[in-house]
Design a protein that fits this description.
This protein is 36% helix and 20% strand. It is α/β, with parallel strands linked by helices. It has a single domain, classed as P-loop containing nucleotide triphosphate hydrolases (Rossmann fold), CATH 3.40.50.
Length: 191
């Protein structure tokens, strides 16, 4: 078990009916990896915010100019928030950025759930996270390391990340003081 997993588990509130971990942070900081490791350790399903990027027909200049505006937080609020805090399983729709399609997704019943991805600590979700006593985690990474990781993972998209998506994320982090609202802040180091 790595150090990040240990630090998150040490902060997980035990009193909740359904334990919930929400992981936000910079692209390339290790959010998905941390979520996968926690999921293995806890036997918990992971809900990815990447499944809630804004569909193409809703991507207006006005919407994308809003901090966090490129995530479909309205659909997340309808399809996930009402159900994430109960033990029963539930269905939601997964959006594919590659082809603009939706597919069915299922979050199985259980006492632990993980939500991971940038924009998962959007202020419109915070009342629910607070009510559910969700553990809020923020991951950061040095800019040089971030670009190195993105170039390894998505070399064809590096320029789009650098000029568009990273600035949008940074605007969201700054506008809503996302890191400051987290219970646990972790800085990912080069491997």
């Amino acid at each position: 078990m790595n150090n990040f997993v240990k630090r998150v588990l040490a902060q997980l509130p035990a009193a909740a009916d359904v334990q919930l971990i929400v992981i936000d942070g910079m692209c390339g900081s290790g959010k998905t990896t941390l979520a996968q490791e926690l999921a293995r350790e806890l036997g918990a399903p992971v809900i990815h915010m990447d499944d809630f990027f804004l569909p193409y027909d809703l991507r207006t200049q006005e919407r994308l100019a809003q901090p966090g505006g490129n995530v479909d937080y309205e659909r997340f609020a309808q399809e996930v928030l009402p159900f994430v805090g109960v033990e029963d399983g539930f269905s939601y729709r997964r959006f594919s950025c590659s082809d603009g399609s939706f597919s069915a997704a299922y979050c199985p019943a259980g006492k632990v759930r993980i939500v991971e991805g940038t924009y998962s600590l959007h202020p419109s979700f915070l009342p629910v996270w607070q009510k559910l006593n969700a553990l809020r985690v923020f991951l950061s990474v040095d800019e040089k390391e971030q670009l190195r990781r993105i170039s390894l993972r998505n070399p064809d998209l590096l320029e789009a990340f650098r000029t568009r998506w990273i600035p949008m994320e940074n605007a969201y982090f700054s506008a809503f003081s996302v890191a400051e609202g987290a219970h646990v802040c972790l800085e990912s180091k080069p491997v």
